[in-house]
């Protein structure tokens, strides 16, 4: 999930622990034991649009979508770091690779059925993937087009009845994937909703989102205004015997979206009526709201704390002077005052200072390093020394591009904190604020990318691969489209190491290599990591069994009970 482009999650959609302010397994008033029954209300700002597994861009199966759509694999539904692991879902295991990880084989569990009681087959998963290639159903993660043999120009089953030869279904329970290159992280990809089974006979094309056929514990009974009001009820043909991950406690789930964030937090705080059994999956507490909540013991006990693989950073374009000079980039790195940046992001409760590009989670391969130690308040003296070495003894003037969106990430507050810190080192920073769409278009176009700007990135799954490769793999530089390799790095040795790590199916071994590569790239000072966000979200007083994993950083609806 490229947070820089889709503003996650979903995540953001997206470090290292679960809830800090509550007992995650026994939260809520009265009897702490979770029971089946009742209605869970979800209060969100953003509607769950395009509720079709082909069109959703989700991390680990998403939250609301994962109640309806099961996939070959899914995320482990546990708190903190344990929740960053991939586990089987429809499949019996996380996949069986051949020797070089270019062929992956899965076997479906026995007894899998849809909401109408008909059997789920491997052919349904193959068809579900194929329809995600149809232009009219675009929006999902792009990996399959790149990874599957012969898939680059495939236009989906509506135009090409032959389907993808790279996906084989030798029998009703076996599915085999043939890849262009080794991909040890294929089990992570298999968590994406594109791996949801879709019965061909029930496919209604672009109208499928109105009533997708459920393979999960809930089915869609109403979808109003493209996900603005989504009502789910139990799928009586779902069996917990085939699904170790989803608890499915509530009888009904009522998702209401399009609400103002302040209204959501007010309603959750008051916890009146149906709102007592309500949660949000996309609305954080802001600095002012958090201060109010922290002063109220009862409210503070109803705050879930989550971390997601996400980094806010300064990006340099080495093609623009003076940022073509590594010494200038190093000087700026030394000058940064992370304490003031964290304060601008809402304070230490909502942001953690970062000196590594990878998030500080084990699954990413995090290895602590601080190559240009600025201390808590910036090292202006060291920065001035380097500027003199670079030929700027009298300082220099630069322009910092940022977004005008009030997101506490790439917004004016963060830009001003950077401006103030660099001033102490003799660097005059002029601020260029752009409206959100203009900002995104400008920084992601090679032709218009500024020399110095605020950026952020979130991972599609908790690993160093989808974090480092899009930003630093030179083969992913896009000259005529959305480009995320902001430093325009095309280092053959870095590219080769990315390929070597991708061959590893031992994900722990791969994580260590990603961490080492992060430090190696960091030495080039192409970015200045600033902070990792922390998510603080209220939930209603009758909510029980709060689980927040490091995969998504948000409350897992599949675990929640309301009684």
TrEMBL record:
Domain of life: Bacteria
Coiled coil location: none
Pfam families referenced in this protein's UniProt entry, alphabetically: SBP_bac_5
Any single biological process term in GO: peptide transport
Xref: InterPro entries: Peptide/Ni-bd, SBP_5, SBP_5_dom
GO molecular function, one term: peptide transmembrane transporter activity
Protein name: ABC transporter solute-binding protein
Species name: Streptomyces lincolnensis
């Amino acid at each position: 999930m490229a947070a820089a482009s889709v503003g996650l999650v979903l995540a953001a959609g997206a470090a290292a622990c679960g809830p800090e302010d509550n007992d995650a397994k026994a939260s809520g008033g009265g009897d702490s034991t979770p029971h089946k029954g009742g209605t869970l209300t979800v209060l969100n700002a953003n509607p769950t649009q395009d509720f079709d597994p082909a069109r959703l861009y989700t991390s680990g199966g998403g939250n609301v979508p994962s109640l309806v759509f099961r996939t070959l694999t899914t995320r482990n539904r546990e708190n903190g770091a344990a929740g960053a692991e991939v586990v089987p879902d429809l499949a019996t295991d996380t996949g069986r690779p051949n020797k070089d990880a270019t062929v992956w084989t899965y076997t479906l569990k026995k007894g899998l059925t849809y909401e109408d009681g008909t059997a789920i087959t491997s052919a349904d998963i193959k068809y579900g993937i194929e329809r995600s290639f149809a232009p009219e159903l675009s929006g999902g993660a792009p990996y399959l087009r790149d990874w599957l043999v012969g898939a680059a120009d495939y236009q989906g089953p509506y135009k090409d009845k032959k389907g993808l030869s790279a996906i084989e279904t030798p029998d009703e329970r076996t599915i085999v994937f043939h890849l262009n290159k080794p991909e040890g992280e294929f089990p992570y990809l298999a968590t994406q909703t594109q791996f949801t089974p879709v019965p061909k006979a029930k496919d209604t094309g672009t109208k499928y989102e109105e009533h997708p056929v459920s393979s999960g514990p809930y089915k869609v009974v109403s979808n109003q205004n493209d996900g603005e009001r989504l009502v789910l009820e139990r799928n009586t043909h779902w069996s917990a015997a085939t699904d170790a991950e989803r608890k499915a406690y509530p009888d009904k789930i009522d998702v209401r979206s399009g609400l103002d964030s302040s209204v959501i937090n007010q309603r959750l705080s008051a916890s009146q009526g149906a709102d007592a059994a309500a949660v949000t999956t996309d609305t954080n507490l802001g600095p002012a709201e958090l201060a109010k909540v922290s002063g109220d013991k009862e409210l503070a006990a109803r705050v879930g704390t989550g971390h997601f693989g996400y980094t806010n950073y300064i990006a340099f374009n080495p093609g623009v002077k003076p940022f073509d000079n590594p010494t200038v980039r190093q000087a700026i790195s030394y000058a940064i005052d992370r304490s003031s940046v964290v304060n601008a992001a809402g304070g230490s409760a909502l942001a953690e200072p970062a000196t590594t590009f990878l998030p500080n989670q084990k699954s990413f391969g995090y290895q602590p390093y601080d190559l240009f130690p600025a201390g808590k308040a910036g090292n202006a003296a060291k920065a001035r020394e380097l500027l003199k070495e670079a030929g700027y003894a009298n300082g220099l003037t630069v322009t910092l591009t940022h977004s005008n969106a009030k997101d506490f990430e790439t917004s004016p507050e963060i830009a001003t904190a950077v401006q103030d810190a660099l001033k102490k080192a003799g660097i005059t920073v002029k601020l260029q604020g752009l409206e959100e769409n203009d900002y995104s278009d400008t920084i992601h176009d090679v032709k218009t990318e500024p020399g110095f700007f605020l950026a952020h990135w979130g991972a599609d799954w908790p690993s160093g691969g989808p974090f480092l490769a899009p930003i630093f793999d030179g083969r992913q530089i896009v000259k005529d489209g959305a480009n995320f390799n902001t430093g325009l790095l095309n280092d053959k040795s870095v590219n080769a190491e990315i390929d070597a790590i991708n061959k590893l199916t031992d994900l722990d071994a791969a994580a260590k290599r990603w961490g080492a590569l992060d430090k190696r790239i960091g030495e080039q000072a192409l970015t200045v990591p600033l902070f990792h966000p922390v998510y603080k979200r209220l939930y209603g007083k009758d909510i029980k069994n709060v689980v927040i994993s490091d995969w998504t950083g948000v409350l897992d609806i599949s675990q929640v009970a309301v009684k």
